[in-house]
Amino acid sequence: MSKILTVFGATGNQGGSVIATVLGHPKLSSEYKLRAVTRDPSKASGKALAEKGVEVVKADLLDKASVVKAVEGSHAVFGVTNYWEIFSKDAEMTQGRNIADASKAAGVSLLIWSTIPHGTKTTNGKLSHLPHFDSKAEVGEYIREQNIPFTFLHAGFFMTNVSNIPPGIQKVQSDAGNTLAWNLNPDTKIPMFDAAADTGKFVAGILLHQPELLGKDIYGATGWYTPTDVVNAIEEVSGTKTTYQQVPDKTFQGFFPEAMGEELMETFMMVRDYAYFGPGGDEILDMSLKVR
Question: What confidence tens digit (pLDDT) does each residue in 31-43 have?
């Protein structure tokens, strides 16, 4: 009998990647029955999953009872939250803890938690305006405290940041070509991660090596790339001359609405000054890439 793998964020980039990868995997597709959790199964995205044979269930991450019901009977769970939908550290922590509590109540054999480093602790308080880092990391601490079997997948720097972050730091059109303006040094190493393509690969590796990866941290990135690498790739794909311009931190902060400027500035400072993952990132990423 197939084991149930419950996937939160099933219609988003990370959860959708997990579902697509498992469905297309010769071993995992026969070993696991997929259960997709979404707020509204009646939407086209939910119906599309159902047509592929995925069980689609409804749950609101802020409604603990619905999350507990969604996880019942699961062997493994992939948990992910989206701070940028709610802009609240407390709310995101509630969502994550609800996933953790539901996983514990169901007695799951593995909770794969999509997380990122604790910004405030990694930087010894020098960067203290990173709630979307700290909330996920503190949920991870809670998972450890609750003795839930886990593997943590630390998502790297999303490649979509190159094009999806508001105008001013994405490709800026000019008569001279494109300019990418960030507050990173041109040679800053960035652990790039394509959430829609890569999440499933790492999760598949974790599922296939569950015993040896239990209680471990896996870093999700395809490799280290610099801003210079990024603009070279843009130029190659677009055929348009593209240059990189490093801007001061406060100038960079000013590219954004006031409510999020400091947080996004410190996010990029986390990459520049602390290699994003913090100490030991190179070694752990090398190990993690062998898991995919």
Answer: 999 999 999 999 9
